[in-house]
C-alpha cells in the first residue's frame, strides 16, 4: 500500500513539473523534409521520442525472451555454413565433370565458410592447374596451408602432383623428399617418387626405392621386378656412357663388375641383363672380361643371344673359345645359333673350310639373314664368281669384323 502511494506521489510530482515546463518553456521543433515543413511543439516531440524509446525497449525485451541471441547467432552461422556446403558440393560436381572454371570459382569462394576448407582449396588448386593458371593454383595451396591446421602433408602432396604434371621435376623431387622425411613409407609419396626418378632417369635412386615399394605399396610384384630389371639395365648403360665420355676404359671393367655384384639374386641370371653387361664390356674394350662372363653364364644358363655374343667377343685365346663352343655342340647339336657362332670362331682361327661347313649347317637348320650373309661373305672370298650375287645382301647387314680369306 505504501509502495503504491509512493508511486502515485512521484507520478503527480513528475506531471506537475512537466506541466510547469510546458507553461513556461513552450518551444517549437521544425523539421524540413524537401519542400515540406513540419512544426510541432518541443514537448510533444520529446513525448513522441520517449514513447518510441519505451516501445522499442519493450519490443527488445519481448524479442530477447522469445528469441535468445545465442540461438540467433547460431542460426545465422549455420545458414552461411549450409550455403557454403552447397557451393562446395556443386564445385566438386563441376570438378568431376571437368568444368574447371566453374569448379575453381565455387570451391575457392566457399572455402572460408566451408567445414572442410582444406578440401576446397586443394580441389580449387587442381581446377586452376587444369585451367593452366599455375599462379592461382599456388595461391590456393598457400591458403590451404594457412587456413587449415596440420595440412602441410596434404598440401605438399597436391603441390607435388601439380609440379609433376608441369614437368617441374627438380622442384617436385624436393617436395617429395621433404614429405618423405615426415612419413617415410607413405605409399602415395613412394609412387610419386618412382614416377619422378623414372622421368629424371635416376636409375640408382629408383633401385634404392624399389624395396620400399615392395613393402608399402600394393603394386604388382611382377611389374616391380620388371621395373627393377629396367633400372639395372639402364644403369649399366649409363655407367658405360660415363666411362666412355671420360675415356676411362682401364678402370671400367672393375667398376662394372662391382656394380654387377650388387644385382639382387632374383635378377642374377636374367639373360637380358647379362647381355647388357656383356655389351658394355665389349663397348669399353674389355673383351677378355666379357668372354669370361659369357662362358661362365652359358655353363649355368643357356641363352641364344649370349651364344651369339660369344661368337663376336675377342677373348684372349681364339682357339680355346672354339674348343669351348664345340663342347657345347655336344649337348646342343641342332642349335642354329651355336652353329653360327662356331662358324665365326672358326673364321677367327682362319679355319675357312670348317667355318663354311658351320655356316651351311646353321643356314640349313634355321635360315636367317645373319647365317646366310656370313655364308655369302665367305663364299665370295673363296669363289670370286659369286661376288656380284652376294654383295647386295652383305652390304645391307652389319656383320662383325672377322678374319676372311685373302
Write up this protein.
The chain has 406 residues and is mainly α. Among the domains are: 220-316, Serine Threonine Protein Phosphatase 5, Tetratricopeptide repeat, CATH 1.25.40; 317-406, Serine Threonine Protein Phosphatase 5, Tetratricopeptide repeat. It has helices at 2-24, 42-66, 69-97, 100-109, 117-130, 134-147, 152-165, 169-182, 187-200, 203-216, 221-246, 249-261, 271-283, 287-300, 304-310, 318-331, 336-348, 352-365, 369-382, 387-396; strands at 28-33, 36-41. A two-stranded antiparallel sheet has the order 1-2. Strand 1 and strand 2 (36-41) form a beta hairpin. Helix 7 packs antiparallel against helix 8 and helix 11 (221-246) packs antiparallel against helix 12 (249-261). It is rod-shaped. The model has no long low-confidence stretch (mean pLDDT 80).
The CATH class name of the domain at 220-316 reads Mainly Alpha
Distance between the termini: 149 Å
Radius of gyration: 46 Å
Query: Into which percent range does the helicity of residues fall?
Result: over 70%
| Unreliable runs | none
What fold name goes in the CATH topology slot of the domain at 220-316? Answer: Serine Threonine Protein Phosphatase 5, Tetratricopeptide repeat
Amino acid at each position: 500500500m505504501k509502495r503504491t502511494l509512493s508511486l502515485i506521489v512521484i507520478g503527480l510530482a513528475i506531471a506537475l513539473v512537466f506541466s510547469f515546463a510546458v507553461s513556461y518553456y513552450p518551444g517549437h521543433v521544425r523539421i524540413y523534409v524537401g519542400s515540406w515543413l513540419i512544426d510541432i511543439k518541443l514537448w510533444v516531440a520529446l513525448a513522441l521520442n520517449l514513447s518510441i524509446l519505451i516501445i522499442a525497449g519493450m519490443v527488445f525485451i519481448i524479442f530477447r525472451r522469445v528469441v535468445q541471441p545465442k540461438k540467433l547467432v547460431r542460426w545465422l552461422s549455420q545458414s552461411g555454413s549450409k550455403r557454403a556446403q552447397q557451393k562446395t558440393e556443386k564445385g566438386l560436381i563441376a570438378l568431376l565433370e571437368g568444368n574447371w572454371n566453374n569448379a575453381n570459382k565455387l570451391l575457392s569462394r566457399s572455402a572460408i565458410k566451408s567445414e572442410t576448407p582444406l578440401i576446397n582449396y586443394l580441389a580449387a588448386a587442381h581446377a586452376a592447374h587444369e585451367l593452366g593458371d599455375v599462379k592461382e593454383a599456388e595461391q590456393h595451396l598457400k591458403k590451404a596451408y594457412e587456413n587449415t591446421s596440420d595440412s602441410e602433408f596434404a598440401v605438399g602432396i597436391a603441390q607435388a602432383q601439380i609440379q609433376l604434371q608441369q614437368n617441374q621435376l627438380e622442384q617436385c623431387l624436393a617436395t617429395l623428399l621433404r614429405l618423405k622425411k615426415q612419413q617415410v613409407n607413405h605409399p602415395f609419396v613412394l609412387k610419386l617418387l618412382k614416377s619422378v626418378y623414372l622421368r629424371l632417369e635416376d636409375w640408382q635412386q629408383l633401385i634404392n626405392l624399389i624395396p620400399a615399394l615392395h613393402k608399402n605399396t600394393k603394386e604388382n610384384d611382377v611389374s616391380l621386378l620388371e621395373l627393377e630389371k629396367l633400372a639395372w639395365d639402364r644403369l649399366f648403360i649409363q655407367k658405360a656412357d660415363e666411362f666412355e665420355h671420360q675415356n676411362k676404359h682401364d678402370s671400367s671393367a672393375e667398376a662394372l663388375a662391382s656394380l654387377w655384384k650388387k644385382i639382387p639374386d632374383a635378377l642374377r641370371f636374367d639373360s637380358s641383363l647379362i647381355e647388357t653387361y656383356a655389351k658394355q664390356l665389349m663397348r669399353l674394350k674389355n673383351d677378355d672380361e666379357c668372354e669370361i662372363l659369357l662362358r661362365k653364364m652359358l655353363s649355368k644358363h643357356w641363352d641364344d643371344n649370349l651364344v651369339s655374343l660369344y661368337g663376336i667377343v675377342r677373348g684372349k685365346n681364339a682357339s680355346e673359345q672354339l674348343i669351348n663352343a664345340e663342347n657345347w655342340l655336344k649337348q646342343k647339336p641342332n642349335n642354329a645359333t651355336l652353329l653360327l657362332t662356331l662358324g665365326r670362331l672358326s673364321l677367327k682361327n682362319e679355319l675357312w673350310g670348317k667355318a663354311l661347313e658351320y655356316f651351311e649347317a646353321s643356314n640349313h637348320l634355321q635360315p636367317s639373314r645373319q647365317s646366310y650373309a656370313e655364308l655369302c661373305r665367305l663364299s665370295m672370298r673363296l669363289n670370286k664368281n659369286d661376288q656380284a650375287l652376294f654383295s647386295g645382301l652383305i652390304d645391307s647387314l652389319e656383320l662383325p669384323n672377322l678374319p676372311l680369306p685373302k
